[in-house]
Fold this sequence. Notes:
The structure holds three protein chains of three kinds.
Chain A: E1 4-6, H1 11-20, E2 27-30, E3 43-46, E4 53-56, E5 61-65, H2 70-79, E6 82-83, H3 94-99, H4 107-110, E7 117-123, E8 129-133, H5 145-149, E9 158-165, E10 167-168, E11 172-179, H6 185-193, E12 201-205, E13 208-215, H7 217-229, E14 237-239, H8 241-254, E15 262-268, H9 270-284, E16 288-294, E17 299-304, H10 309-321, E18 325-330, H11 343-346, H12 352-356, H13 362-373
Parallel strand pairs in A: 1-3, 2-3
Antiparallel strand pairs in A: 4-5, 5-9, 6-10, 7-8, 7-9, 11-13, 11-14, 12-13, 12-16, 15-17, 15-18, 16-17
Chain B: H1 2-16, E1 22-23, H2 26-30, E2 46-48, H3 53-65, E3 70-73, E4 90-93, E5 100-104, E6 109-112, H4 118-125, E7 130-131, H5 144-150, H6 157-160, E8 167-173, E9 179-183, H7 194-198, E10 207-214, E11 216-217, E12 221-229, H8 232-244, E13 251-256, H9 257-267, E14 277-285, H10 287-303, E15 308-311, H11 315-326, H12 328-335, E16 338-341, H13 351-365, E17 369-374, E18 382-386, H14 393-410, H15 429-432, H16 435-448, H17 463-466
Chain C: H1 2-20, H2 33-38, H3 45-58, H4 63-70, H5 78-81, H6 88-100, H7 105-119, H8 128-141, H9 152-163, E1 173-175, E2 182-187, H10 190-195, H11 197-209, E3 212-216, H12 225-229, H13 233-247, E4 254-257, H14 260-267, H15 269-272, H16 279-285, E5 286-288, H17 289-294, E6 307-312, H18 315-318, H19 326-331, E7 337-340, H20 354-357, H21 359-376, E8 380-383, H22 386-396, E9 401-403, H23 405-412
Parallel strand pairs in C: 2-3, 2-4, 4-5, 6-7, 6-8, 8-9
Antiparallel strand pairs in C: 1-3
Helix pairs in contact in C: 1-3, 1-6, 3-4, 4-6, 7-8, 8-9, 9-22, 11-23, 21-22
Amino acid sequence: MVAGVLAPASVDELGGQLRDLDAHHRMMIRGLGSTLPSDDDRIVVDTMALNRFVHRVDDFSVTVGAGVLWSALQEQLARVGQRVAVDPPGVGTVGAMVATGARGGLIHRYGGVRDQIIGMTIVLADGTVAHSGSTVIKNVAGYDLAKLFAGSRGRFGIIAEVIFRTRPLPETQRTLLVPARPDRVRALVHEILGAHVELSALDLVDDTLSCLVEGGHEVIDRRLDRLMRALPDTATERLDEPQSLAYWSRLRDLQFPVEGGLVFSLSARSTVTLDLLPMMRSTLGSSLAALVAHVGAGVVEVSVAPGGQAHRLLELREMLSCAAGEIRARHPLCSFDFEIPSSALVTHPPSAEARAGSTITVRLLADRIGMALDPNGRFR
Amino acid sequence: MAASRIDILIDRLRSSVERSSLILEAAERQAYSCDGLTSHRAVPKLVIVPASREELIASVRAVIDVDLPWVARGAGTGLSGGALPDEEGVLVVTSRLKAILEVDPISRIAVVEPGVVNLELSKAVLPHGLYFAPDPSSQIACSIGGNVAENSGGAHCFKYGFTTHHVLALELLLPTGELLWLGSEGMDGPGPDLRGVVIGSEGTLGIVTRVVCRLLPLPEARRTFLAYFDSVAAAAEAVSDVVSRGITPAAIEMMDHLAIAACEIATGAGLDTTAQSCLLLELDGEADEVAQEFLSVRALMDLHGSSHVWEAANEEERALMWLARKAAFAAAGRVAPAYIVQDGVVPRSALPRVLEGIGRLGVESGLSILNVFHAGDGNLHPLVTYDPSIEGQEALAEEVAAKILTLCLEEGGSLTGEHGIGVDKVCHMPEMFTADDLTTFERLRGAFDPSGMCNRGKLLPTPRLCGERPGRYQPHPLEEAGLGERW
Amino acid sequence: MGTKSQSLTEEFDAIAELSATCVHCGFCLAACPTYSVTSMENDSPRGRIWLLAQAARTKEVNDSLRLHIDRCIGCEACVPACPSGVRYDDLIDRARRVVNVGRSKRELLGRSVVVASFSRAQRFGSLVPSAQALARGVVKSSLLRPQLPRLPRVQALLEQAATIEPQRSMGTFTSLVPNERARVVMLTGCIASVFFEEVNAATVKVLNAEGISVIVPKEQGCCGALASHAGQHRPAQRAARALIAALDLPGIDAVVTNSAGCGAMMKDYGELLEHEIGSDAFSGRVVDVMEFLDRFKSVIRYRPMPREILYHEPCHLAFAQGVRSAGPSVLGRIPGLKLRLTEGPNCCGAGGLYSATQPELAHQVGEAKRDAILEAGIDLLVSGNPGCAIQLNSLLGDRVNILHPIVLLSRAIES
């Protein structure tokens, strides 16, 4: 059983509750929480009641509590023709999406969730409530705490409220599917990117390059035509709007762990990830559940079946160690402490001084930040 | 005490760096006494201009070893005094580290040294049909390292974002002397985004020794035009309207009458100096989309009473328009003996209100205020002009400038959109941030720089700098954001 | 003595006022050839202005100031680059005079000898070897600066002297054309007339072909630019007065020069002579030959020349005189000719005596220019300034052919 549950209804209430707690109580943050294990002595901070929602429509920004469901956020925004330009797999709260550094195919054009945040309110373990950023899209005052907390998996404190930059919801979308044999991928990607058609996503799945084109009704088919003309020797397939929506929904599902499985995410130079793909497939063999590569962004999601995960991770790390990349794992447990050999985190490019010992790892620096913001290790 | 430590340092450096990398002469050090913010000056005890990355690392470590305060400087074009030297310490200048180490046109990235000039990178990758998107007005001179420190924006960041969106990874020498890479060469790295924390940290978390820049393809089509208006309010309404319709021009810049006149004197670009205000708009992207956007934006300009429009007929005319716009700050020097630049940000919908407020402040104070700014981002650059030879006018100008910032904060905006806090606005920080916010910043800073020797006195207010003046408590924008609620 | 310190005070006051317009924005950095080589603040216009402002405050000239003023080529590329309108051209003239105060006698003497040896080249006529000997003597006696490692430009001049057949100066002559459209007087130039006589001949030929009569007075001295660059105010003024007397003939439409450096100096006579009677009017008549040709609708038929050439803008033409479009416009009359500019800073590092006094930096600036030129992969370059031509020639050797644009025009005239 957990030691207790806090369910604050406001940021200030949360701050007060944490200030009143015994400094040594360890804590765990829960959003939707269906998959959380019931840790023995932890106090659970349930964020679901942090549900403020302030949408400044004309300014294209929205303030939203961490407990609001991601899907609810997007639905509300869509009513007035806007969205936060991130399409992560799975369901969860805004807090969870931000804390895990969520992203999907739209990373190609818009970056990850961290790139959509213009302000954040956080609560530290000792109850300190801190803000960074604000409701304006351009702002360099103070440190960008939002960057620190995006992807931090609750290590430094609680994400209480987030201010997103919203964008116009595109009128419509199309997808062009381009068959891509492994030996042709690089050339095809080059041709697609050179077509002067701005893609919203470019994913490689199962030897197919999927090009998402979003925009206005009037010109979208002309734009798709141009994309096809840039690939004269390739038999492509066009998806209309309903097909396209369904297709990307399926792609999102592939990026979510299968039952009992794990998703490893790799981030490296785009050409490096392309070179690694065949190797990943052959090495992982039958334990590979799915492999989705955001090829323009240099990010690959590797979904592996249950069993032998640590071994799989070592194999991937081995591949990356000579290819200058980084690796992380995504797991329903959202555990930042998933054991990753630290050398896999930093060595880009592997350099002489990295071996000479005068360097430190990102992990170590993150630990120092953890010590500064959470000295008693309540969130560790 | 400090002097002897300096002597020890110089002694050590003589054997580890080139003689030409050390600037010892007092007169020569004086040339480094300020960056683009000339109102604050300090002469450092020593200036190091390393000739290589290895020298940079070795010399900064030597400075850390003797426990002296130090400050990093790029090209010295910053406008908030972020590179203001520490009088008791060392200034480390990256201007000689200007090698473009690698360009990968397929992955669309470049690996550069911090001293590479912003525009030089774009020039170098032009043959590949690529460019580096952040384009601060000083891009002709400012360095990538400085862009990283300040999270530089520029005219086109409304559509394309800031330095943080275009720097994928960086190699950082921490204030502890340790070296590490942050970020990856892909768009999103694992774990907490420490790369994103360092970008915009104003040189307080270390010094960047290598940078991986993301490059964008040059847009297929581009249309640039100036729309003139009979009033500032009309132009501001036009901007709000464009933005609220979800149109994303590459740039929307605004100048008022005085700014137009100053820029025209400085550049002779052919601006209409009789107009009360003008918008410089640039649309770019795919030809089809640009053509359509152009029609909608033109219609909006007409709707808001634009008196006439000058569209750039060719690249030369476009260059002229941008030359005029980017020369604005320095051009103000032609119409007034001195001025204070502000850099506040407001939500776009508040632009008309805030501009009216600034106009009122100008009338009340009797000072001329030039307005030139990135309207698409709501990033204002009012230039409060004054004559230092007139008793009390400088203080009055400072007061007006401060009131403008208050106006911005009241709208839920920010003290600075791109120039940074530096020393310039450090004492205003308590107006935007609560004591808890500032303590949290300090804790974060301490994790990077436990001894507090790296660009000390910048970014975060200290009693020594700002007196015992308690920060005026200001409800955070979040606390009063109920204003704009709409479902 | 009293007048000297008084004039120094005036100079400092003027410097204080001129430097106060600098807002320290740094836009000049990219335009500056020395900063682009060294990346050192004190080798940039902004840094030098700061040094000068400090000197004006303290009324003191120190070695740092002297060093960095000496290291300025004086290309003036920073002047159009400055949004605040800082008159760096004016500043550097004053600075050069100011830093001579307190300079060691040995050094001053050395500088005078170099100025004299080049500015009197014409009067020595075909006696190039004696100028050569003089130059050698200068090198040996090391009067210029204590540790001069090498003198590439002087060497270049010497090599040039050895390979180019010394040509006699033209002597006075008048080349009138029937139904003349204009009548001009031509400056033969001191260096140009010795090393580049073809340039003068070509100038006359092209002007005549356009229906312009040319008068070339025999007694012409140096325009004074070399003395002025060395901060020698009085000698420069003397040269200016002498040249005005020689060239300011009645009934003349313009004073034409094919040397950008001389043109820049002569257009500045009004300032140099403190607007004494006739000086401003004379300066107003001075015109670069390309600038002058650009004013006329051409009546010449040129042979097509279907090829690409590099166009080098001499700093003294582009920045000091603000003449930028005339050269390309006039050369554009040759059918098929395509012009390309080189990347990077404009300056080649020649800058009057600069390469003799700052050999190391001049060499570095030159090397950067050389690389940019070779990068372009074109083997013909035109430059409208003899000083640049010599510098570029010594940098590029046989790899790129260097011509004055007027020579290219002259060769393209259909006979």
